[in-house]
Amino acid sequence: MKHMNSMFEKYDVLVVGAGHSGAEAAAAAANLGSKVLLITMNMNAIAQMSCNPAMGGIAKGQILREIDALGGYSALVTDRTMIQFRMLNRSKGPAMWSPRAQSDRVQFTIEWRRMLEQTPNLDFWQDVVVGLIVDDRQVRGVRTAMGMEIYSSAVVLTNGTFLNGKIHIGKKNFSGGRMGDPASYGLSDQLADLGFETSRMKTGTPVRVDGRTIDFSKMEEQQGDEDPGQFSFLEKRKLKKQRSCWITYTSPVVHDTLKLGFLDSPMFSGRIQGIGPRYCPSIEDKIERFSDKNRHQLFVEPEGWDTIEYYVNGFSSSLPDNVQVEALRKIPGFENAKIFRPGYAIEYDFFPPTQLHATLETKQVAGLYFAGQINGTTGYEEAAAQGIMAGINAHQKLNNKEPFVLGRSEAYIGVLIDDLVTKGVDEPYRMFTSRAEHRILLRQDNADFRLTAKAYKLGLASEVRYKMMLEKKEKVEQLVRYLDNYSADPEVLNTKLEELETAPLKQKVKMSALLLRPQVGLMDLLTADTALSSFVSDSDMDREVLESVEIQIKYQGYIQKERESALKLEKFEDIKLSDEFDYHKLKSLSYEAREKLNKIKPSSIGQAARISGVSPSDINVLLVYLGR
Question: What is the model's pTM?
Answer without folding.
Answer: 0.93
